[in-house]
Amino acid sequence: MSVHDFIRERFFPHMWCAGCGHGTILNGLIRAVDELGIRKRNLVMVTGIGCSARISGYVDFHSLHTIHGRALAFATGVKLSRPELHVIVPMGDGDGLSIGGNHFIHAARRNINLTALIMNNRTYGMTGGQFSPLSGLGIKASTAPYDNIDNSFDVVELAKAAGATFVARTTTFHVNQLSDLIKAAIQHKGFSVVEIFTQCPTYFGRKNKLGDAPQMLQTFKERTVPVGSPKKQEDPSLIERGIFVNIERPEYCDEYQKLLERTQEA
Ligand code: SF4
Questions:
Q1: Which CATH superfamily is domain 3-265 in?
Q2: Could you tell me which residues come within 8 angstroms of residue 60 by beta carbon, excluding any fewer than 6 positions away?
Q3: Which of 51, 83, 117, 143 is most buried when burial is the number of CB atoms within 10 A of its CB?
């Protein structure tokens, strides 16, 4: 197998804008899958709606392109019915933390063995650049032309608090770390979350005067540091990337199976 075998070439050219970070995430993901030696028939990708969700059309795994905010609900059903399959759930700001926020915290609380990728570009790209729960104070959006006054979620802190057993963060600039973290998340037994800062030059970058895609990538490079870096103490505004949580806890499908067996014995 090579990485090309994981691509559905008939769906290309892709719909993402020039410079969009989502293609880099697709690249990191299929490289991770290739390096893990997982067979295509053992992989399922479930997505909701949005620019990020189009990723499920471009991979030659079993794929479900479902409804907005419900990717984790569909993925939970797939995993419970076929727990031996790897289930990967890429989501944008809305799918993951807005309309899908409730599914996110409950999937984390259950510790079901899914790999959630939060493709965080701080905007709703597909629908025209509205602000999202990850946009942050003071940014401009098509629905916040005079600055956004909503606080944003911290994906890592939210996932930790909700009970996710693997939590990591990286960016589309750090391509090797991106692939390594996705690999680790897929291998983890339990609910794993990788937040990936990704650039939307078309809306978020343009409205906030952040420059073109290379300039946005340069910002990811300059404004993030490895977990535990002393630079974070010197400048608390820097954002850490790496693995924040990696623990073992009973997994939901295993516990469900045990429950079924106890019921049958009774
Ligand atoms: S609108 Fe933004 S997120 Fe959507 S494809 Fe274009 S650059 Fe990517």
A1: Thiamin diphosphate (ThDP)-binding fold, Pyr/PP domains (3.40.50.970)
A2: 5, 6, 7, 8, 40
A3: 117
